[in-house]
Amino acid sequence: MKDLGRPSGRFFSINGNTDALEATIDDQAYRTRLRDLRADETRPPAETLQALLRLGAEWLGLEHGHLTRIDLAAGTHTIVEVSGPHPVLEKGRTCDLSTTYCRHVVARGDALAVGNAPEQGWNRDPAYEAFELSTYFGAKVVVENEFYGTLCFVDREPRVESFGESDAAVLALLVRAVEQTLERRRTGKALQEKEGRLRGLANSLPGVTYQFYARPGEDWGYHFVGQKAESVLGLSAEPEGFHDRFIQCIPPEYREQYVENTRTASKELCPARIEMPFDRPDGTRIWLLCSSMPERREDEILFNGVLLDITDRKEAEQALQAERDRFETLFHNLPTPVVHGWPDDDGRVRPQNVNDTFETVFGIDKDHLRTEDLRAHIVPPDAQDDADSIRRWLQNGEPVDREVQRETSRGIRDFRVQVTLREDESGPVEGYAIYTDITERKRRERTLQDRQEKVEALYATTAQVLRAEDEAAVAQCIVDLVNEVFGYPIVVVRFREDHRLTPVQASPNISDHLPELSSLDVTSESVVATAFRDGDTTVFDDLRAADDAADPGAVRATAIVPVGMHGTISVAALEAGAVEDFDRRLIEILSTYAALVLDRITYEGELVSAKEEAERLNRMKSAFLANMSHEIRTPLTSIIGFAEVIGDEVARLSGRSAPEGSTFNTLHQFSELIEESGHRLLETLDAVLNLSRLEAGEMKLDCIPLNLTEEVREAAGLFEPQAHTEGIDLQVETPDAPLWACVDEGGLRIVLQNLISNALKYTEEGGAVHVRADGDDDAVVLEVEDTGVGMDPGRVPELFEPFRQESEGPGRTYEGTGLGLAVTKQATEQMGGTIAVETAKGEGSCFTVQFPATAPPDRA
After folding, report:
1. Is the pLDDT of residue 807 over 70?
2. Full-prediction pTM beyond 0.85?
3. pLDDT tops 90 at residue 808
4. CB neighbours of 70 closer than 8 A, spacing ≥ 6?
5. How far is CA 50 from CA 30, 81, 167, 501, 620, in A?
6. Maximum CA pair distance of the chain?
7. 471: closest CA among 300, 609, 597, 324?
8. Which SS3 state, helix, strand or coil, does residue 578 take?
9. CA 637 – CA 151 distance, rounded (Å)
């Protein structure tokens, strides 16, 4: 804890263990409420944040709590969540960070406590003036190691008791809870994005994939429906209204069963599975297997599942039953193993006969099966539980359709076993078991699963690569993915440095398989350098056959994938031909993303260099202008002074009687021209310097409450002699009451003098210039209107650019640098005002300047 100077307040360090912080707080009820809020992951993050803000305000005995998002680069402070309504602290309000108490929290990193702002000297601070909050208690919020903003609790009234260590502990616990909630919300968004990326993959799976939601009150619907809905179901895959369309196609006698199945799965959070007929819109009836797994998400339950067309299977079962006699005839001619037998009381099939294919596949003849246990011969030890499950189905008289593993004469293979029972007319129940070899299909499915896992890992790694801040991080992501997910023992990432490809990351145990890695000349004939120059992936099924001088060590197969113009990824295996094409294509995708990130890193480095160069040039400009101010202003002042002296001396010597055209008159004219030109050059110098200082932020404009009524009258009075001499009617229109605005006195005079001077310059003899001031509670408005030459409205956008006038070049009608209005615009905007112009050729111009109104200064 440390004390501030003036204005005063207290800083608290709120870092510490959560349990240790809780130990300093006596109020168990509030602690329990806070723990409940943190533990409740079903509540939406936005509601949790509001509840935390309300709890914190109540706990600390303050009027209001709010969460801010602070952009340090832009210097903005935005209220993103509030505990409830407040006159000035509404959700979404954005203001300058410099006008808030939070700027001190950001600067110090500790929590700030202000219990009575007016008494502690904050009444003139922008934070108090902007919000009039007497009490402030706030701390910074960090989400995933990144600065997020601040958590603040405030009150318009002073706090009776001073903030202490227990209050700081409460604030610390609240900050931890808010940070946890924000991290949960960010994680939720990331998961939703991942779901979106996986939708495309889902559409490649068999059947109609879907994501079904069940909300309270039986609010059911679909978030996602696979594109195969059109071909399988004859329905549009549009999620909106899909549930109603789907329900209508279920036959009425099955519809309630489907609804009850869904209701039970939602209530008990259990998998949903049902087989049912489905009438397509074209009149075709199919059979569907609806299978899904539940997942609870905040205020809804999601079922991720698939609709499979099992019409063929259903028809096969029916055909099997209808043609049982013909099946017996074909029994021995079937190309798949078939067992014919009777189930005993334990549900085991007691074989009576097998076809020739069964004997060939399993290596067991029918004579042995009649006296021996079939299960002991063909069921592997680790598949006994599955065999028991089949036995129980048979005991219940139900058909079996399973995928199993069985021992064969060629080892363990995958089969689809289909067992159908029937009642023979002569008496006992008999059964037929058909074993269809699906080993190759299962191998393809495992390959597909392996590829799916690799694709998902690629997506995850790509996200890491896109967030990488340097080349080393990019290389590490690549090596980790290829080593851990793809399973290749050797991975080398090389990046180009000048004219060499230098290894920057490699597999941990690469020295066990390869000699020491070295950098390669990009012009060399090595396989790596050649692939880099060609820009195409190069694959060697056996590196020993390659024409490469480098020692391959134990490496046999390799693939070299270029990473744009940045380098290469080398992937190698110890067996010939072991680098798969699918893996190579995924690595090529990864290299594309890596090249984009490396381009971004290079571009960012160039931007930093460009920024440093711009800053250097800006410093040179400032030095030049400073020198110009001294080196030009000093002799120019002397020139003007001597011109005035010469003019006075010539006037004295010539007297009133000097004839027209005499030498004295000529000298007097020359001295006046010198003096006039000197003043014009000095005004140009001042305008250039003022514009430069304003643009660079070096001209300090201290805005204070000023009476613009007096300032306008005073400024116009300075130009009355000029207007009188030039025959122009200069009129001032101001209210009797003061007009208070928060402006800088010097800046305001620059604005008024430039606008009035400009109006007089472009108004001819007999014309008029009106200077007006008016205002209300929100703004004070100044107008300078003339009846001069005006200009083309299409040239207005150029009017406030430096050195621009409507008439330009050596033959222009009016003298001047074209800097006055540019300086005026800069000064106006830096004082928080705006400037606009209305003009027409030959009708004059009207410039309108608007400043925010303010209260009069406190004279006490």
Report:
1. no
2. no
3. no
4. 76, 77, 78, 97, 102, 106, 147, 148, 149, 150
5. 16, 7, 20, 55, 52
6. 158
7. 597
8. coil
9. 58
